[in-house]
Design brief:
Blueprint (H helix, E strand, L loop, with lengths): L3 E8 L5 E9 L5 E8 L3 E6 L15 E7 L4 E8 L6 E8 L3
Antiparallel strand pairs: 1-4, 1-6, 2-3, 2-5, 6-7
Length: about 100
């Protein structure tokens, strides 16, 4: 099992939510924005490892992300660390309300 980070986006709105993910690093310019859509009343799971356009997110590099949406969404960020026999899973959730 490969270590990875995933965002789960919940769109509880009646319309599709269009959002962008920008990745920031300690020693280089940001990557992105990665433009994604989650349909109305649905969830979307996206691994950072699978973000490829406009460029792949580098593996084994520290980064942080900023997610901006045209509608209110709920974002859950999960990290699976499989570098040792005992896997570790950590998850956080954020919701921005006007």
């Amino acid at each position: 099992m490969l270590s990875h980070e995933t965002i789960c986006i919940l769109n509880a709105n009646d319309s599709d939510a269009h959002f962008e993910v920008t990745i920031f690093f300690t020693d280089r310019d940001p990557a992105g924005p990665f433009k994604l859509t989650v349909p109305a009343k649905r969830v979307l799971h996206k691994r950072f490892n699978n973000l490829k356009d406009p460029e792949p997110v580098p593996l084994d590099t520290d980064y942080a992300s900023v997610i901006e949406s045209d509608l209110p969404i709920v974002v859950q960020h999960t990290r699976l660390d499989s570098r040792q026999a005992e896997n570790a899973l950590v998850s956080t959730a954020a919701f921005f309300a006007d």
